[in-house]
Design a protein that fits this description.
Herpes Virus-1, two-stranded antiparallel ribbon, two-stranded parallel ribbon, zinc ion binding, 10 strands, Methane Monooxygenase Hydroxylase, Chain G, domain 1, flat, about 675 residues, about 70% helix, mainly alpha
Length: about 675
C-alpha cells in the first residue's frame, strides 16, 4: 500500500477518534467547554495535522514555512458569511504569525458552530486548494470529505474559548501547561503527538479505534472527568441538557429562518420591481386612452365635414358630366396622337436594338480574336520568361480590359431584354385602350339614336291623340330611368377616362425613362467606340511587341550560336596543343612518315629589285606536303588536310583535317536547324 495513502487513512482514523472522544467526554462532563479542556486541545492538534497534510511550503531566507492560514483565507471569498470572522481574526491583538491566525480562526469557527460548513465549502473548490496543497493532500482526496463530515457532530457542543490570554503564535501542538488543581495526574494523559510519526507510517489495522484504546489503557490513560463530578452537577445535569438542547434547536431554527428571510426579501424586491414596471405601464396606457378619445372626437367631426363635402361634390359632378363628354372626345384625339408617337418610338428603339445586337456580335468576335491572340502571347511569354517580363504585365492588363468589356456587354443585353418587355407591355395596353374606346363610341351612338327616336315618337303621339298621355308619361319615366342609367354610365366612363389618363401618364413616364436609357445607350456606344479604339491601339502595340520579340529572338539565337562557337574554341584551345614540326614524324590520320621532302623548310634568298637595283635578303618558308590543322593543332599530310572551313577564330576559311571537317559540318548543320 502507498505510504501517502496510509498517512491519509491514519489521519482520518485519528480525526474519528478525537471527534468521538470529544463528543462523548463533553456529553458526560457537560456540553459547555472552555479553553482548558484537554480533549479539545487534542482535537485542535489532530485538525491542525489534517490541514497541514500535503501543504506546499513557501521558500524564504530562513527556510520553508508551511502555514494553513492561506487556505483558510479562501473561505472569505467562497462564503461571504465568513468575512466578518476573518476580519476579526486579523484584528486580534497579539497575533503576528499566520499559524496563530489560523488557530484563532479554527476556535472562532468552532464557537460559532460553522466549522463544518466552512470547511465543506472549502474542499468543494479543489481548483483553489491546488494552489496551496499537493495532489496527494488529505483535503483534496476523498478522506478530506470524511473528516469534514465528522465535524458536523461538533455542533452539539458549546465552546467558550478565551483567546486574549493565550499565545497562539508560540503555542505548540499540545498545551504544555495544564492546571494541576483540576487534574493532578494530567501528566499521564495520552499525548497523540508522541505516536503520530508511527501512526502515519504503520498500516491501517493498527490504527483502528479498539487497538488505539487498548494501547491507551496500557499506557494508563484515565478519564478523570468521571471523578470530577459532584452531587450538585448530577442534580442539575438534566435541566442543563434540556437548556442546551433548546439552545441548539433555537440555533438551527434561527438559521432556517434567516435563510427563509433572505429568500422572502429577494422575492419582495422582485415584486417591487414588477409593481413599479406595472405602474409605469398603467400611466402610459392612461395617456394612450386619453389620446385615443381625442382622436375619436376629431374623427367624428371630420366625418360630418366629409359627408357634407361629398354631397356638394356629387351635385357639382352632375353639372360637369356634359363638359366631360366633350373633353373625352378631345382627349381621345390626344391619345391617338400619343399612340402614333409611341409606335414611332418603338420602331426606332427596335432599330437601335438591332444595331446594338450587331455591335455585340462584333464584340464577341473581337473577344474571340483577342482570346486567341492572348493564348499565343501567353505561349510566347512562357518561352521567353527571362526577357519579356514587362510585356507580360501589359498582356495581363489587356485581359482585364477584355473581361470588363464582356461584363459591360452582358449588362447591355439584360437592359435590352428589359426594354423589349416594356415595349410589348405598352403595345398590349394600347390595343386594350383602342378596344375600350371603340366600345364606348358605339354605346354613345346607340344611346343618342334611342333618345332621338323616343323624342320623335313622343311628339308624334302628342300630335296624334291626347288619350295616350298616360302611356307617354310612362315612357317619359322610362326615359328618365334611362337618363339616370346614362348618367351612371357617363360617370363610369369618366372614371375610365381618369384611369386611362393615369395609365397614359405612366406610359409617358416610361417613354421618358426609355428615352433616358437610350441616351445612356448612346453614351455607352461612345464608350464602346473609345474602347474599340483602345483595343485597336493595344493590338498595334501587341503586333509591334511581337515583331520586337521575334527580332530579339533571332538576335538571341545568333548570340547563342556565337557563344557556343566561342565556348567550343575555348575548349579546343584549352584541351589541344599546337604540335611542333620537329615532333611530328607521321601523319595523324593516315600515319605516313614525313621524309625530308615532306618537311617544312625555311630558307634565305638573295634577290635584286628591278626598280632600284638594290640587292636584299629575305626569309621565305617553303611548304611541302606537311600541314597543320587549324582546329585541332595536329600535323597531317596534304591528302588528309585538303579541306577549308571558316572558324570562329579566323575570318577567312582555313585548312582543317578530314575529322575536324566532318565534325564542324555536323555542328553547323545542327546549329542552322
Amino acid at each position: 500500500m502507498d505510504t501517502l495513502m496510509v498517512e491519509r487513512i491514519n489521519l482520518m482514523n485519528m480525526a474519528k477518534m478525537s471527534v468521538k472522544g470529544l463528543i462523548e467526554s463533553a456529553l458526560s462532563f457537560g456540553r459547555t467547554l472552555d479553553s482548558d479542556y484537554a480533549p479539545l486541545h487534542q482535537f485542535f492538534v489532530v485538525l491542525e495535522y489534517c490541514l497541514k497534510h500535503g501543504l506546499k511550503g513557501k521558500k524564504s531566507f530562513l527556510g520553508q514555512s508551511k502555514s494553513f492560514w492561506g487556505p483558510l483565507e479562501l473561505v472569505e471569498k467562497i462564503c461571504p458569511e465568513a468575512a466578518e470572522m476573518t476580519s476579526s481574526v486579523r484584528e486580534l491583538p497579539g497575533l503576528k504569525t499566520p499559524a496563530g491566525k489560523g488557530r484563532a480562526w479554527l476556535r472562532l469557527a468552532l464557537m460559532r458552530k460553522t466549522l463544518a460548513d466552512f470547511l465543506k465549502e472549502l474542499i468543494s473548490h479543489k481548483e483553489l486548494l491546488s494552489e496551496f496543497y499537493e495532489p496527494h493532500a488529505l483535503l483534496i482526496e476523498e478522506e478530506g470529505a470524511v473528516v469534514v463530515g465528522l465535524l458536523i457532530g461538533l455542533n452539539v457542543i458549546d465552546a467558550n474559548l478565551c483567546m486574549k490570554g493565550e499565545d497562539l503564535d508560540a503555542q505548540t501542538l499540545l498545551k504544555k501547561r495544564q492546571k494541576s488543581e483540576l487534574c493532578p495526574l494530567s501528566k499521564l494523559v495520552w499525548n497523540p503527538l508522541l505516536y503520530i510519526p508511527t501512526l502515519l507510517t504503520t498500516p491501517t489495522r493498527t490504527t483502528s479505534f479498539w487497538t488505539l484504546t487498548f494501547s491507551r489503557k496500557k499506557l494508563g490513560v484515565i478519564d478523570y472527568a468521571l471523578y470530577m463530578k459532584d452531587d450538585k452537577s448530577e442534580l442539575g445535569s438534566g435541566s442543563m441538557t434540556a437548556i442546551l438542547d433548546q439552545k441548539n434547536y433555537l440555533e438551527e431554527l434561527n438559521k432556517s429562518l434567516s435563510v427563509t428571510l433572505s429568500n422572502l426579501q429577494s422575492k419582495v424586491d422582485a415584486l417591487e420591481k414588477t409593481n413599479s414596471k406595472l405602474g409605469v405601464e398603467l400611466a402610459a396606457t392612461r395617456v394612450q386612452v386619453s389620446s385615443l378619445e381625442e382622436e375619436n372626437a376629431k374623427l367624428c367631426s371630420d366625418s360630418a365635414d366629409i359627408v357634407e363635402t361629398t354631397r356638394r361634390q356629387i351635385e357639382a359632378s352632375k353639372l360637369d358630366v356634359d363638359t366631360e363628354l366633350q373633353t373625352y372626345k378631345e382627349s381621345r384625339q390626344g391619345l391617338d396622337e400619343l399612340y402614333s408617337e409611341a409606335r414611332l418610338q418603338l420602331r426606332e428603339e427596335s432599330q437601335m436594338r438591332l444595331d446594338v445586337e450587331k455591335e455585340l456580335e462584333l464584340q464577341i468576335s473581337m473577344k474571340q480574336e483577342m482570346e486567341m491572340a492572348m493564348r499565343l502571347l501567353e505561349q510566347d511569354v512562357h518561352e521567353k520568361q527571362d526577357v519579356l517580363v514587362s510585356l507580360r504585365h501589359q498582356l495581363q492588363e489587356v485581359k482585364e480590359i477584355n473581361l470588363d468589356l464582356v461584363h459591360d456587354l452582358q449588362g447591355l443585353d439584360a437592359q435590352l431584354k428589359q426594354k423589349n418587355e416594356l415595349v410589348t407591355a405598352l403595345e398590349e395596353k394600347n390595343t386594350k385602350l383602342d378596344a375600350s374606346l371603340h366600345d364606348y363610341e358605339q354605346r354613345l351612338n346607340d344611346i343618342e339614336k334611342e333618345r332621338t327616336s323616343a323624342l320623335n315618337d313622343g311628339t308624334k303621339l302628342r300630335q296624334e291623340c291626347g288619350e295616350k298621355i298616360d302611356c307617354l308619361q310612362k315612357r317619359l319615366d322610362e326615359s328618365d330611368r334611362q337618363k339616370v342609367q346614362l348618367e351612371t354610365d357617363i360617370r363610369i366612363e369618366r372614371e375610365w377616362r381618369q384611369a386611362l389618363q393615369q395609365e397614359l401618364q405612366k406610359d409617358r413616364q416610361q417613354i421618358n425613362a426609355l428615352q433616358a436609357e437610350l441616351r445612356a445607350m448612346d453614351t455607352l456606344r461612345q464608350e464602346l467606340a473609345g474602347m474599340r479604339e483602345e483595343a485597336q491601339k493595344l493590338r498595334s502595340v501587341n503586333l509591334e511587341q511581337e515583331l520586337t520579340n521575334r527580332e530579339l529572338g533571332g538576335k538571341l539565337s545568333e548570340s547563342k550560336l556565337k557563344m557556343e562557337d566561342i565556348k567550343e574554341v575555348n575548349k579546343a584551345l584549352q584541351g589541344q596543343v599546337w604540335l611542333k614540326d620537329r615532333e611530328a614524324t607521321n601523319c595523324k590520320l593516315c600515319e605516313k612518315e614525313f621524309s625530308i621532302a615532306r618537311r617544312k623548310v625555311r630558307a634565305q634568298r638573295f634577290f635584286t629589285t628591278p626598280s632600284t637595283g638594290r640587292q636584299t635578303w629575305s626569309l621565305t618558308t617553303f611548304y611541302f606536303a606537311q600541314h597543320h590543322c587549324r582546329n585541332c593543332g595536329e600535323i597531317f599530310c596534304s591528302t588528309c588536310s585538303d579541306n577549308e572551313l571558316p572558324l570562329p577564330s579566323a575570318p577567312k576559311p582555313v585548312r582543317v583535317c578530314d575529322l575536324c571537317h566532318e565534325l564542324l559540318l555536323q555542328r553547323y548543320s545542327s546549329g542552322t536547324n
